[in-house]
Amino acid sequence: MQPHTLVLAVVGGIGLVGAVVAAAAILAVAQAAGAPPAQAGLYVSLVAGGGILAGLAGWWLLHARLIQPLEALTRDLRLLQSDPQPRALELPAGHALGRLPELIEGLTGQLEAARRATGEAVALATRRAEEQKSRLEAILVDLAEGVVVCNLDHRILLYNQAARRLLHRPAGLGLDRPLFGVLAEEPIRKTVAMLRRSASDANPVLRIRRCEVPMVESEVSLKARLGLVREPNGEISGYVLTFTETMEGGAAAPAAPEPIPPRPEFYDFDLFRPARTTLPETPLRQIPFVVFDTETTGLNPDGGDELISIGAVRVVNGRLLTGETYAQLIDPGRPIPEASIKFHGITADMVAGQPPVNEVLPAFKTFVGDAVLVAYNIAFDMAFLAKREKEAGVAFDNPVLDALLLAAHVFPDQPDHSLSAMAHRLGVNVEGRHTALGDAIATAKLWVKLLVMLEARGLGTFGQAVEISQRMMKQRQAQAPGVGW
């Protein structure tokens, strides 16, 4: 039985009992006074009828002013429970609930405010966690070092792509999988135990130890560094293993090929002027870029050297668009020295019949549009464009950024900032090195990685990139010329 039905039954029962008691009392009084039975029965009927009507009136009043409002209140509260959007309670007029609905609405409002504050706090914490995660991902993705984090049970908690590459993409490498499925157990256990002994209260500094760790079922070993992970409460919960080199049969892996002689840098502070006032505050990820490279007959634009090739690719919203490229050979109108052919492989036969520079530059300008120009040591390439732009009837006055200078900022301790060295450092696969398009695509791949790394360092706008470039240019001008092609 529902509560309101029980209440109505009780009220009805009380009214019926009252009517019966009243009728019996009137009948007894009438009989004592000697009233005729018919008259006494009339009195009883009137009293009983009045009692029943009074009970029905009381029942209706109770139902209309209390039971129905309570049912409506219950319905509204259930609706708020399933859909916590703030809304007014819909109660019948003239209810007898007093200030109860008002108090409930006040509590509901406070609950909604608390829920909103909690939601905002959760959203803020989520955003911060995502930002920290993005920074960590940017650092891990762009690290050339392999990184593996394990707990004290030697199960893998984290690893990066460089670790997969250096470990030759083993099937046993995975989250919550045992590290000893891919690396030898003894040197790791020995190093962890040694570090844990040194991490006593008397020696609270956790040092990093170097070790050589063989790969499982392989003659290849890793030159590694191992450090412990300490929780805020001081407990040691695991360790971090980093490695950069592999050794085969106790000897270091073969060295990289001999680097190509460096390309001289050209500097021009005017290259970094913004083209519009809104650009400095624009996030780099929102800026369309055209990343380009040129090949030339030599290194001296003022000494008669000319363009022989231009290659370019678009980067939009932080993505390299491999389907939007530009590649064009150019007839320089002069011989190509053998010394230059050794670098780019472009011969006189290859440029014979190709359009001259004054026809190529307008087409390239059309491809560029109003995008920001990016190149590796861009002053060199811009010097050759500027040399012939008046003759071609175009002006490359686009904003520019130099990937070389920004790479030097991100990796200040890197001894070699050449395109080949940085591509190797960041794991960029270079195809068609020393062709204009091949170098442009390699630079674009590197550029996309630099955007992520700059953003992770809180340097995500064009204006900030220009300031960094100007500062790095001053530093490099103070160094010996000829570093970094």
TrEMBL record:
Catalysed reactions, as listed in the record: DNA(n) + a 2'-deoxyribonucleoside 5'-triphosphate = DNA(n+1) + diphosphate
Gene Ontology cellular component list: cytosol
Presence of the UniProt keyword Membrane in the record: yes
SUPFAM superfamilies tied to this protein: PYP-like sensor domain (PAS domain), Ribonuclease H-like
E.C. numbers: 2.7.7.7
All residue ranges annotated as the PAS domain in the record: 134-200
CDD domains: DEDDh, PAS
Enzyme kind, highest EC tier: transferase
Gene Ontology molecular function: 3'-5' exonuclease activity; DNA binding; DNA-directed DNA polymerase activity
Stretches assigned to the Exonuclease domain: 288-456
GO biological process: DNA replication; regulation of DNA-templated transcription
Transmembrane segments: 6-30, 42-62
Lineage: superkingdom: Bacteria
Keywords assigned: Exonuclease, Hydrolase, Membrane, Nuclease, Transmembrane, Transmembrane helix
Function description: DNA polymerase III is a complex, multichain enzyme responsible for most of the replicative synthesis in bacteria. The epsilon subunit contain the editing function and is a proofreading 3'-5' exonuclease.
Record note on quaternary structure: DNA polymerase III contains a core (composed of alpha, epsilon and theta chains) that associates with a tau subunit. This core dimerizes to form the POLIII' complex. PolIII' associates with the gamma complex (composed of gamma, delta, delta', psi and chi chains) and with the beta chain to form the complete DNA polymerase III complex.
Protein name as catalogued: DNA-directed DNA polymerase
